[in-house]
Request: fold
Amino acid sequence: MIFRPARSKRLWDTWLFPWKDGYHLFFLESELPHRGLGHAFSKDLVHWEIWPSIKTWGEPGAWNETPLVLTGTTVHHEGTFYLYAGAHFRGTQVVGLYTSKDLVEWTEHPENPVMQPEGPHYQSEPVPDFFYDVVDWRDPCIIFNESDGHYHAFLCARLPQWSHEDSGAAVGRLRSRDLIHWECLPPLATPGKDFYHTEVPDVFQLGDRHYLAFATISQGGIRLDTATKDAAKGTFYLMSDSFEGPYEKPDDCLLVGASNWRTDPYVGRTIPYEGGRLLYHHMGGKRTAFSSPKRVRQRPDGTLWLEYLPLLEKLETGVVREGFDGLKTDEPRGGVGQWDAGAGSVEVNSQVLGSAAPLPGYLGDIHLALQLRSESARRVGVLFRFQQGLYCEGDAGVLVLDFDAGAAHVGQTKYDPFAGAGFTPQDSFRMPLERGRTYTLRLYLRDEHIEAYLDDQWIFSTTMELPVGGELALYAEGGRARFESIRVAEIEPFPEF
Reply:
């Protein structure tokens, strides 16, 4: 939700290349009748400028004759930039190389394609009626391994055999000294018993642990129910005590994603940042976007979670609310509940069906920080972007902490006298929630894109078809709740390039 290209183009898979005084964003860019690579640049990871697109399709009969380009990566080596991107060639995915001296002008390498699937470790020929009749060999991640003096590439690949119990999904591995000639090695991991595929792999280290991340989906008979989300799609990870593996799946293996079969945040990768790692990804929706980066944090047992990055506050243009002045506690839409608004806090005793109290003012793109807690209430949260006078279903966004279920929910609801009562979540995040404890809910609304954090832990990245602006309301149901502080800042709208 920090960058998207012109309306005539669509952004999909992304990769970041940090270089000197900034960050280069490369992304799959579609614009009829062709598809190539888009390129943008930022000095602060928040504000972006468009650079010239990169043509990646060739003449009929060439390895890249199809305009559909596949995800890649960028590497610097001995004064030259190496950009890898894939293509479909006669039923097989292959990877080609483009080089540059200035990150602007790119030349296709004469030995393309430089990476192709080979046996005996990998499927190398198309198989009818299996996985779209195409050989998986795409999305390279390339890192330098000091222990053997080689560059290692990791790709979405598939084993030459599979069964109803194992999809054959594998993380392919190659190595090279010159970044042109690559030797196929056995897979780094073969997680096909648990996952459908291993798109856009990422291999990195934090502390003494090594991690392998990749994007995949719940589909068909593969339903990925994790500790935080059910029927998840997104970026998952495995962990190991060594670079060589074996890589094992932790109990909560989802790094970033959505539940309920939704493809909202997808293709997460990491870059070094301030001695740690940042994760970035793209967002689905009518106008796909490059989402805000998150700091990758490590628990004592080595498992990972994502933390809010204050860099986003560079988007703020001004604070429009601090405090609860003007809270409309006598609205007929307040439902069944009693509200008591003080100078710096609000208390509510809501009956079982729920109660909402609107704050005055029309808001567009915002950053909301709200402190709240449940004393005895079942659910506590906010309604957003509703416009009073509209009574159609789905005319308000809602985000609640469900203390009975131990989960946060986000979705759309009808703004009526009982507000969020009975809404069906479009995404949920399971986590321990304690009554009597104060939580800080952070919400970014920018056009159709929504991101949420609880105590600065990432919980949601999603999209909604809502008005581009509207009102904000506090919400509770089934008992007592308290809202202790609120801050609302307007943020810059997406620039139109």
About this structure: The chain has two domains: 10-307, 316-491. The mean pLDDT is 93. The chain is about 0% helix and 50% strand. Residues 10-307 form a domain with the Tachylectin-2; Chain A fold (CATH 2.115.10.20).
